[in-house]
């Protein structure tokens, strides 16, 4: 008997692309060059020419902290991780060559050409950090122990930007690399109030020159430091805040610097007067990288973006991952059209994040105001977002709190022509206080009568918004009903599956309303504690209403009997129903660990319990429908068959749960790369593959297409009749009528057998070759005119029918 697969927590995407310095592969052409960067537990390889994700290197068990090309084989890559291992990859084929277990957390990685069999790493030691050299053995085998460590320097900084290696100096007595260490000292603050704290360091590739960045925005170039007490430095100053990273060009003729201003500065010949700028890069620059031939620059940004820049400071490409917003107020919402996750992005923007490609699809500007990067300013930001069932309507709430609260409710309509959302209605101050929840009811979006929006607020009311018919063909939204309950604050709202009931929680009480007459039907209460979240059951469990209180109770009420069905003592922080099944996922938080419980409302015993599966608090969760149902071997995990569960932690790590092992968890792109000899997957290739699949099914689905297409858009029956007859003919794999020589007569294999069974077999084998006996009847042989007509039908192009 095969043991059921265990449920694994996987970092599915959204990893920080700016966690370590990115590196360029060595290539003669732009089309054959790649950018390799750390992203969570993975190493990602992007195409410089197309910015597409080409390969995902999996294998580390914790955060990847460094990537470096192997100095003596540019087709191989070293990567370090907090899991205490160094891995050697053949990144072009995605093959893991070796794993070196060091046994310490690795915070940074450096690979030098002079050290062929060793690398340098930064490891923790009590309250400080060490720069050590790790000996990499060349013995046979894939998993190796690398316990031979040599301490190079004590008391270094944990940041990889604060350690740099300069040009190589060899001793005339041998091939030993000389370690030249110098100490420069500056006062923490100078007489003018400048902050001299070091933030980053870079070494000149050919000269004895060191560049240091400081917290006051100054850059210092240190020279003559190989003479005792005679070192000199010059100062470059443009940044108004701390310098975040420095990098010399390949020839050393220029210096690149980046900071919080989102501007890449290029200093020429170490002069304060000669500098060029590339502004408006979006967010603060964390790392600056340069290709080995100097033709490309790369900047990694705090908003999880990588920008590829030409050497003449012209923008080339951008790779945008999941933006880590300062505060996620909208939660995780699924766009019904694209199945993308929608949440806060840049200030005042909604980001649409594709889970399959781990990239941002696009960003929608909601606030439509210029954001000022200055601390202490209260600026408008997104607080709530909701989609209608088919994604036709989008509702957003933005708020700004100065002396008085400013609120705006905006309704956006999806324009099919422009394939984007267009602002339809703007409502100022929809509530007198903060909006706490928002949801749509849309049983049939073709009828505007069924479409309505409900908002709840701290002003102790909930409001119902509907579309008014006026001169605008799309209609404008207006308030239709205002409800309240004993002056309590309204905190949550949700509609039943059929839209006939609306549940609104008012502090400790849940109220149920008739959505057609707005009559209060019943109330539920389970003291002590206020209602934290509510949801209706679905499908066979639609008669149940589930709620969680902030005092640690999970309750299930029966809407038919208006009584409590069951309750459980559980501190639920997130309650998420699956839109395609009866299952509901509940995340609890206890003793600084998160647990997962999956249940059906009609069964008080959970179907799946995963205790202490995450040491971070879960903020939000969402079920995303799968394109193809998953094959699940265990009944315990059948709730993962039609939808996939994603959740966001308080550190904004996007995770999911999976029953597949590491080898089985291949993305669609990885599978296609393996089939097509590791060629990068482009949107055109995916579109072509989909077209070929549709074309192969055209004959099978033709009858269905004809029957399901509206009659008023179909051509005449005389034109469709040959198409339908042609779809019923045998496939081209069998021998056609015209290919059989007319002068050759073949004798049936079952001519001498009177058995009906053998006659049937003979008919199957000799189809379209000669007349055969079946049930005592002889099929008529086609005449030459009939064969000519048949050839004409087959040559006719009926591809236009596929559009229907």
Automatic annotation (TrEMBL):
Q: Key word Transcription present in the record?
A: yes
* SUPFAM superfamilies listed in its UniProt record: WD40 repeat-like (SSF50978)
UniProt lists compositionally biased (Basic and acidic residues) regions at 778-788
Q: Which GO terms describe its biological process?
A: positive regulation of rRNA processing; positive regulation of transcription by RNA polymerase I; rRNA processing
* WD repeat start and end residues: 57-99
Its subcellular locations are: Nucleus, Nucleolus
Query: Which InterPro entries does UniProt cross-reference here?
Result: Beta-prop_WDR75_2nd (IPR057644), WD40/YVTN_repeat-like_dom_sf (IPR015943), WD40_repeat_CS (IPR019775), WD40_repeat_dom_sf (IPR036322), WD40_rpt (IPR001680), WDR75 (IPR053826)
Q: What is this protein called?
A: WD repeat domain 75
Its source organism is Phasianus colchicus (Common pheasant)
Organism lineage string: Eukaryota, Metazoa, Chordata, Craniata, Vertebrata
């Amino acid at each position: 008997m095969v043991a059921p697969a265990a449920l694994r927590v996987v970092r599915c995407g959204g990893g920080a692309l700016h966690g370590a310095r990115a590196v360029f592969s060595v290539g003669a052409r732009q089309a054959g060059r790649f950018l390799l960067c750390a992203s969570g537990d993975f190493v990602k390889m992007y195409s410089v020419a197309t910015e597409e994700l080409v390969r995902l290197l999996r294998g580390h068990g914790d955060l990847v902290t460094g990537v470096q090309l192997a100095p003596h084989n540019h087709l191989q890559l070293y990567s370090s991780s907090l899991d205490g291992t160094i891995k050697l990859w053949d990144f072009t084929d995605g093959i893991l060559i070796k794993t070196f277990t060091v046994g310490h957390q690795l915070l940074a990685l450096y690979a030098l050409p002079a050290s062929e069999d060793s690398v340098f790493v930064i490891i923790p030691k009590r309250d400080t950090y060490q720069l050590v050299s790790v000996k990499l053995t060349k013995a046979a085998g894939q998993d190796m122990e690398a316990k031979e460590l040599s301490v190079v320097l004590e008391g270094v900084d944990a940041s990889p930007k604060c350690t740099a290696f300069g040009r190589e100096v060899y001793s005339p007595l041998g091939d030993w690399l000389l370690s030249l260490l110098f100490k420069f000292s500056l006062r923490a603050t100078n007489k003018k109030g400048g902050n001299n704290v070091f933030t980053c360091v870079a070494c000149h590739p050919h000269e004895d020159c060191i560049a240091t960045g400081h917290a006051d925005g100054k850059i210092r170039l240190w020279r003559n430091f190989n003479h005792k007490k005679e070192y000199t430095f010059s100062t470059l100053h443009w940044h108004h805040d701390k310098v975040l990273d420095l990098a010399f060009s390949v020839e050393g003729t220029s210096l690149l610097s980046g900071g919080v201003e989102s501007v890449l500065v290029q200093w020429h010949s170490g002069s304060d007067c000669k500098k060029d700028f590339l502004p408006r890069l979006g967010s603060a620059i964390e790392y600056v990288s340069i290709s080995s031939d100097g033709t490309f620059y790369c900047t990694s940004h705090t908003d999880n973006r990588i920008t590829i820049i030409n050497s003449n400071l012209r923008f080339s490409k951008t790779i945008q991952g999941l933006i880590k917003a300062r505060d996620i107020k909208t939660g995780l919402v699924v766009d019904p059209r694209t199945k993308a996750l929608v949440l806060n992005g840049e200030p005042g923007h909604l980001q649409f994040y594709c889970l399959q490609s781990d990239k941002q699809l696009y960003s929608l500007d909601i606030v439509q105001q210029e954001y000022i990067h200055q601390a202490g300013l209260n600026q408008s930001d997104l607080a709530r977002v909701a989609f209608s069932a088919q994604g036709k309507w989008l509702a957003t709430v933005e708020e700004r709190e100065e002396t008085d609260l400013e609120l705006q409710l905006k309704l956006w309509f999806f324009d099919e022509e422009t394939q984007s959302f267009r602002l339809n209605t703007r409502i100022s101050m929809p509530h007198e206080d903060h909006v706490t929840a928002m949801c749509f009811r849309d049983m049939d979006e073709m009828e505007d009568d069924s479409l309505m929006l409900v908002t709840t607020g701290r002003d102790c009311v909930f409001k119902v918004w509907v579309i008014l018919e006026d001169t605008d063909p799309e209609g404008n939204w207006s308030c239709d009903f205002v409800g309240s309950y004993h002056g309590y604050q309204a905190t949550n709202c949700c509609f039943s599956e059929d839209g006939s009931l609306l549940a609104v929680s008012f502090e400790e009480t849940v109220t149920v309303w008739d959505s057609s007459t707005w009559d209060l039907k019943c109330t539920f209460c389970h003291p002590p504690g206020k209602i934290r979240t509510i949801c209706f059951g679905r499908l066979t469990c639609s008669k149940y209403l589930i709620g969680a209180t902030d005092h640690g109770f999970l309750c299930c009420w029966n809407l038919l009997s208006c009584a409590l069905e069951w309750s459980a003592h559980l501190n639920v922080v997130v309650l998420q129903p699956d839109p395609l099944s009866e299952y509901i996922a509940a995340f609890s938080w206890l003793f600084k660990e998160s647990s997962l419980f999956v249940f059906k409302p009609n069964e008080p015993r959970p179907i799946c319990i995963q205790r202490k599966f995450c040491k971070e608090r879960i903020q939000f969760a969402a079920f995303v429908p799968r394109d193809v149902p998953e094959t699940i071997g265990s009944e315990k995990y059948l709730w993962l068959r039609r939808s996939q569960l994603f959740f966001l932690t308080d550190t904004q790590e996007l995770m999911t749960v999976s029953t597949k092992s590491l080898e089985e968890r291949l993305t669609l792109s990885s599978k296609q790369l393996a089939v097509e000899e590791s060629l990068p997957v482009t949107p055109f290739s995916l579109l072509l593959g989909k077209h070929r699949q549709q074309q192969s099914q055209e004959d099978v689905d033709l009858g269905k297409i004809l029957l399901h297409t509206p009659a008023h858009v179909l051509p005449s029956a005389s034109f469709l009749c040959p198409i339908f007859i042609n779809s019923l003919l045998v496939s081209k794999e069998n021998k056609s009528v015209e290919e059989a020589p007319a002068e050759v007569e073949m004798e049936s294999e079952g001519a001498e057998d009177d058995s009906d069974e053998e006659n049937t077999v003979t008919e199957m084998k000799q189809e379209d070759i000669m007349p055969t006996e079946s049930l005592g009847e002889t099929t008529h042989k086609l005449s030459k005119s009939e064969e000519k007509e048949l050839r004409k039908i087959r040559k006719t192009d009926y591809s236009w029918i596929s559009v229907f």
